[in-house]
Fold:
Amino acid sequence: MIGVASRVGGCIAAQIMLRNDKCSQPGFEGSLVLVGLMGVGKSTIGRRLAARLGLPFVDADEEIEKAAGMTIQDMFDRHGEPAFRDGERRVIQRLIDGSRKVIATGGGAFVNNETRELILEKATAIWLDADINILVNRVSRREGRPLLKGKDPRDVLTSLAKERAPFYAQAPIRVMSSDSPHDATVDSIMKALGQ
Structure:
């Protein structure tokens, strides 16, 4: 079952923090940036959302790999997470500064203060959230997640969810993803956007 898309709570938090007043307007302006934990479906849902809105879709992780000429795993291994996050911020800034689009970000992008402030100032952030059991099932289907390398996915995701939720909660829109078809999640996002 799809959770209810939330705009009100996020708007109040955003208005208190004076970071993103777009949530008080019907619809949205600028790019849409999907944030949330790995495995929540940011790329899959982002592609479908972009098609529905008639906008281009960009996966920030793919753009980072193109810019660096190596995989994200290689970047983590060779240069460490801080260097990766700096490159990630620069790529996301370039993507947001361009034409209007739907952008899927990596799970840790919105946790970085500079990247989060950039997204909240220049785009509309949408937090895709899901139950840990769903996330564990989804991440087990795909290799190449640096934060899971050699670790138990449930332990990592539970810890990340607790650590990152306060950051993700600053997004003006929150939509729950479930085992239902991804189009149901897209429907919830469209409703939250006033489309």
